[in-house]
Each structure stands twice: as structure tokens, then as C-alpha cells.
Design brief:
GO molecular function: ATP binding
Distance between the termini: 57 Å
Radius of gyration: 28 Å
InterPro entries: P-loop_NTPase
Number of strands: 4
Order of helices and strands: HHEHHEHEEHHHHH
Largest sheet: 2 strands, antiparallel
Number of domains: 3
Protein name: ATP-binding protein
Keywords: ATP-binding, Nucleotide-binding
Number of helices: 10
Strand content: 5-15%
Oligomer: single chain
Organism: Clostridium tertium
């Protein structure tokens, strides 16, 4: 908090000095003043402010490629995202040391005080977009009340690996959402493999009678009747070559 107050006081002093001298403060000074005031408000609301320094390292076996990639990246950030990115030639070595994971901060010239939300929203791939533009409806966003659709089969068509994470508090509907997504994908033609250690879905074959023929349940217990169920030579007892391949892999 004291660092933010000192920074704000310094900026205000610069603006007042310009006004007293009969000069008009620059746009950069006014923008800095507004940013400092915004940070002060964030701190008063008990928000956490983080000292942040971000460095990006580009590598290649050829210097020309590195320089071209640097130019493209800077144009993307500075022009498209309106996010200032600089390439200080005299600080390259210290910035490279900053880039090494778990290393100390060697260059404090580019430290920024930013809220946690700002930092999280500035990382690569950060987005408030959930789901996909096609697929089944699975819910809506709390902020914005936007509908969320998902069809994981579309990822493979785009040569991408489908992935999904479900997070939430106890009793918040994580299992229900996972069950809904699995059933919807199976109805659209997908195949699902579920590891269910608590047997929460053991009744599906009886309750979901409309897809009973699509459900196969394999129980694995320490009982004698379940021993050897995952043995490749039991799974492929009529095809020794397939059994050998599975055992080898």
C-alpha cells in the first residue's frame, strides 16, 4: 500500500509542477495519474496487488528468425492487443536471467503493480470464453449469463486434443455436469470409458433404459470372481497376437 501511495504522490507532484509552471501535463502523465488512483481504490477494497515483471524469451538456431519472430510478437501485442511490449537491447542479459524459472529478479526497471485479476487475464491463452460454438447446451456463465455449448468430438476434427476440467465446491454439481456431458456425447455417437471407484453410476444400465444396450459395466473388486479381468490373454483369448500386443504396450 505504501508503495502505491508513494507512486501516486510522485505522479501528482509531476502533474502539479507542470501546472504551476504554466505547462499542460502530457497525456502520459494524466494516464499514469488515473492508473495510480485506480490502484489505490483496488487496495482500499482489500484487493491484492502484485509486483509483476513479465519477460518473454524467443529462441531459434538462427538470429534472423529470432528477430523476425520478435517483431511479429511486438506488433501483435502493441497494435492488436494495445498491450505495450518493448525490446530493450542493453538489458537483454538481465532480462534473460529474469526469464529463467525460479530465478531472482535482476532487472527492476520494468516492475508493475497490478491486481491479481489483471495478471491472470494477461497470460497466454487467458479467455472468458467457455465451451465451443457448436454442441449440446451444458450451462451458462455467471458473469454475462452466456450459454455454454460443448462437443469434444470437434477437437479431433481440428487436429487438437480434447480436454475439459470441472471445478467447484462440494455439492456444487460437478458429478452431475460430468454425467450430463458423457450421456450427451454418447447419444451423439461417441464412446465413453468411465472409472467409477464409488460405483455412483452402477445403476445406469437399469435407469437409462433408452441406452441400456450401449452400457457395459466391468466391476473390479478383490473378490475371486473379478481376478484376471484386465489380463490381456483373457480379454483376447481368441486372438493371441492382439493379446501379445496389448500386453507389450
Amino acid at each position: 500500500k505504501s508503495k502505491i501511495k508513494n507512486k501516486a504522490a510522485k505522479i501528482n507532484a509531476q502533474v502539479n509542477e507542470a501546472l504551476q509552471g504554466g505547462h499542460i501535463p502530457s497525456d502520459e502523465e494524466y494516464e499514469a495519474k488515473a492508473a495510480a488512483e485506480s490502484l489505490e481504490k483496488e487496495v482500499k477494497r482489500n484487493k491484492h496487488i502484485i509486483e509483476t515483471s513479465i519477460s518473454i524469451c524467443l529462441a531459434s538456431t538462427k538470429e534472423k528468425i529470432v528477430r523476425n519472430n520478435t517483431k511479429v510478437l511486438m506488433e501483435y501485442f502493441n497494435k492488436s492487443l494495445k498491450f505495450e511490449l518493448i525490446n530493450p537491447y542493453t538489458d537483454q542479459y538481465r532480462i534473460f536471467l529474469d526469464f529463467i524459472p525460479a530465478n531472482s529478479n535482476y532487472n527492476r526497471d520494468f516492475i508493475q503493480l497490478v491486481p491479481m485479476e489483471t495478471l491472470a487475464g494477461g497470460v497466454f491463452g487467458a479467455s472468458d470464453h467457455l465451451g465451443d460454438s457448436v454442441g449440446a447446451y451444458i450451462g451458462y456463465t455467471v458473469n454475462g449469463n452466456r450459454k455454454v455449448y460443448l462437443y469434444m468430438g470437434r477437437a479431433t476434427k481440428l487436429n487438437k486434443s480434447p480436454a475439459m476440467g470441472i471445478y467447484g465446491n462440494l455439492g456444487g454439481g460437478k458429478s452431475f455436469n460430468a454425467n450430463l456431458i458423457v450421456v450427451l456425447h454418447v447419444l451423439f455417437g461417441s464412446s465413453a470409458l468411465i472409472f467409477d471407484p464409488k460405483s455412483e453410476r452402477s445403476h445406469w444400465a437399469d435407469k437409462l433404459d433408452f441406452m441400456r444396450d450401449l452400457i457395459s459395466i466391468v466391476r473390479l473388486t478383490p473378490n475371486d470372481e473379478d481376478k484376471g479381468k484386465l489380463d490381456p490373454f483373457n480379454l483376447y483369448n481368441d486372438n493371441i497376437d492382439e493379446a501379445c500386443d496389448l500386453a507389450f504396450n
